From TrEMBL:
Keywords: DNA-binding, Transcription, Transcription regulation. Residues 33-195 form the Transcriptional regulator LacI/GalR-like sensor domain. GO terms for molecular function: DNA-binding transcription factor activity; transcription cis-regulatory region binding. SUPFAM superfamilies: Periplasmic binding protein-like I (SSF53822). CDD domains: PBP1_LacI_sugar_binding-like. Gene3D superfamilies: 3.40.50.2300. This is LacI family transcriptional regulator. The keyword Ion transport does not apply. It comes from Cryobacterium lactosi.
Length: 196
């Protein structure tokens, strides 16, 4: 007897079950391009991982680098800060690290909203104005992102579509559907105050 199963999230290998994910590379390109369109050229990244084994971190960094390359902006390793796990405290620590390094940056792309909110707090503590001095974009569209001050621009990974599709896939499997399906959820850039 097989158990109905739908995998959600990053897909490292193809398997014999339904799978729903978001195009993290394209979504990260969109976040970075948004900052570039606002005139930002020194975009720091918070959330990379040293090991390169975390698929989300690797794909989000790939999207960032691709967007920079598309705008003919060179990569500066001083602007990349590792943060693991992706919690507010590590976002705050990463922002302090950027400041302590003396890195010149006019924007931050944080690999999730928790990191972005932690970084934003530290910037405000040291007198950096968001978004006047530094624009910030996060990823995940947490509910609290709409209520931070300033409110956080973020990537919505399509959670509603993912949830609805997962339920439908399970219902289909219970009804006898056997062929595995792959779904790429639609992401959306949610523009708010933190990016100007």
């Amino acid at each position: 007897m097989s158990v109905p199963l739908v995998l959600l999230g990053d897909q490292v290998t193809k398997g014999p079950t339904d799978h729903i994910t978001v195009d993290q590379v394209a979504a990260s390109q969109a976040a970075t391009r948004h900052l570039l369109a606002g005139g930002r050229r020194r975009i720091a990244v918070i959330g990379a991982h040293d090991s390169g084994e975390d698929a989300s971190a690797r794909m989000r960094l790939e999207g960032y680098l691709s967007a920079l390359q598309g705008h003919k902006i060179g990569f500066d390793p001083q602007l990349v800060v590792n943060a693991d796990p992706w919690h507010r405290a590590n976002g705050a620590k990463a922002a302090r690290e950027l400041i302590d390094r003396g890195a010149k940056f006019d924007a931050i792309f944080a690999f999730n909203d928790a990191l972005a909110l932690g970084a934003m707090r530290v910037l405000q503590e040291v007198g950096v104005r968001v978004p006047v001095d530094v624009a910030i974009v996060g990823f995940d569209n947490l509910d609290e992102s709409a209520y931070s001050v300033p409110s956080l621009t973020t990537i919505d990974p399509g959670r509603s579509q993912i949830a609805e599709s997962a339920v439908q896939f399970l219902v289909d499997q219970i009804g006898g559907k056997k062929e595995p399906r792959q779904l790429l959820a639609k992401y959306e850039l949610i523009r708010r105050e933190s990016s100007g």
